[in-house]
Design brief:
- By secondary structure, the chain is of the alpha/beta class.
- It is 33% helix and 21% strand.
- It has seven helices and eight strands, in the order ββαβααβββαβααβα.
- The strands form two sheets. The protein has a five-stranded mixed β-sheet, with helices on one face.
- The two termini are 18 Å apart.
- One of its GO terms (cellular component) is cytoplasm.
- This is Ribonuclease H.
- Its main location: cytoplasm.
- Its cofactor is Mg(2+); Mn(2+).
């Protein structure tokens, strides 16, 4: 079966527009601070989305009947984090976005032979450490229940096997676990509700 073609809308990057491959999109956004992009199933969807505000596309308002959201609105002062994992190469990277200023606050990787859950875990801890350094108690949104549970347990319960390429990743996991054991924080770690708010703003746009 032929691989389904994705189209990528780029609002903020080296060049704005619609691109028909991830490689072309990546040239515009990789390493570009504050990059804004999202994947779509068709070119028409991507072109129509590009005519709208980026955050209006990735954070649509709840539909009727979904108004009673118990968690704070994602429009409040907060950070969102996410990870991307290449199933073929095993490479993983993660990043964090400030929801209020609409800027990329950190991006790390790629790291060899990782997993998505590890990336999500490291992203949350990375955000916690940065926010603590700046005496900020804003909440952190993640769409990974697994990573959130690992952070609460102060332990990455991964079954990933060490390889000759992921020693750095295991060192980062150890440092993250040690940080959680040695530090306290007041930041709430909240689940990003994709079905209500759309794609996590920290998403890499490669789905």
């Amino acid at each position: 079966m032929a691989k389904k073609v994705k189209f990528y809308a780029v609002w903020a990057g080296r060049e704005k527009g619609v691109f028909s491959s991830w490689d072309d999109c990546k040239k515009q956004v990789d390493g570009f601070e504050g990059a804004q992009y999202k994947s779509f199933e068709s070119k028409t969807e991507a072109e129509n989305a590009l005519k709208r505000n980026y955050y209006a596309v990735v954070n649509p308002k709840p539909t009727p009947g979904q108004a009673s959201i118990k968690q704070p609105s994602p429009t409040i002062a907060a950070w969102a984090v996410d990870a991307a994992w290449n199933t073929k190469s095993g490479d993983m990277e993660y990043q964090g976005v400030d929801l209020q200023t609409k800027t990329l606050v950190f991006r790390k990787g790629p790291f060899f032979d990782g997993t998505n859950n590890i990336g999500e875990f490291l992203a949350i801890v990375h955000a916690l450490a940065l926010l603590k350094k700046h005496n900020s108690e804003v909440p952190i949104f993640s769409d990974s229940k697994t990573a959130i549970s690992w952070v609460k347990a102060k332990k990455a319960n991964t079954k990933l096997d060490p390889t000759g390429r992921n020693a750095e990743l295991f060192e980062l996991i150890k440092r993250a676990e040690d940080w959680l054991k040695d530090n306290t924080y007041k930041n709430k770690i909240l689940k990003w509700e994709t079905k209500w708010w759309g794609e996590n703003p920290a998403d890499f746009g490669r789905k």
